Amino acid sequence: MLALVATVVWSGSFVASRALHDSVPPVQAAFWRWIVAILAVAPFAARATWRQRRVIRRHLGFVTLSALLGVTVYNTLVNQAGLTTSAGNMGMIMAASPVLMALYERLGGARLGARRVTGMMIACVGVLLLVGKGALPTSLAAGDLWMLAAAVSFASYSALLKRRPAELGGPVFLFATFVLGALMLLPVYGVSLAVQGGFEPSFGTVGPLVYVGVLSSALAFFAWNKAIALIGAARAGVVYYLQPVCVALLSYVLLGEELGAAGGASMALILGGVALASAARARG
């Protein structure tokens, strides 16, 4: 249930990013998301982070790279993708990120196996059919390309997490990456303000930012970490594959985005491919 809560909340973040596409510039949306997240997590992790400051300093390179990939780059790319593609596309393209994670494992020397490779290929075909609206695309929309780049960033971040030092506590690591990620966004945020101007605070802008800051960035990560502690990463990871279904339903209900038969078939291919790859991994 905790893993499902995290997955549903993360699915809503794609809808929120899409809802902000014509009112808040992507960099500004990303920056304020993490400011809200820092304020939400600080009461639970700020003191522990200060106590472990020497540990953070010792592993500063690792923490900084994690913040760059998982906080600064990934979420900014998601917001940029929301300008020119649908929330449904965003969620379903992200469903292929486990394929990229598997490729990282292969580069690290792990064997994938025929079943896992087959699942990866099926998922990739599903992504291509999705962005091509039922046919193999000859070109990609800008938003789809941004989302593919976001998937690469998220997969890189996830692969890096396997090397997280055991002495660096989960909440402390989370809070430190939030702070460093926001600091790295600050110069680009200043440029965005100078070039694009600020945005008008309203329920339609502040509401989604509070959602992605408090729920997607704080609550979901805490729920996901607890789920992994209770049932393990393999079982919790299977629930993550429900994300495209959640995004499609939320974008239909909240944004009026139509999925269509081609989108449904593409989603089935993606889910089938990643499920096959996941089953092969569990058996391996």
Describe the structure.
The structure is a single chain. With 284 residues, the protein is mainly α. The protein contains 13 helices and no strands. Helix 1 crosses helix 12 and helix 5 packs antiparallel against helix 12. 48% of the residues are buried. The model has no long low-confidence stretch (mean pLDDT 79).
Percent of residues in β-strands:
under 5%
Return the string of H and E elements.
HHHHHHHHHHHHH
Please outline the major beta sheet.
Answer: none
Radius of gyration: 18 Å
First-residue to last-residue Cα separation: 26 Å
Average pLDDT level: 79
Number of strands: 0
Q: Helix segment count?
A: 13
User: Percent helix among the residues?
Assistant: over 70%
Which parts are unreliable, with pLDDT below 50 for 5 consecutive residues or more? Answer: none
The coarse overall form would be globular
SS class: mainly alpha
Features:
mainly alpha
Task: Annotate the secondary structure layout.
Blueprint: H1 2-19, H2 26-51, H3 53-58, H4 60-81, H5 87-94, H6 97-107, H7 114-131, H8 142-161, H9 170-196, H10 203-231, H11 233-240, H12 243-255, H13 260-283
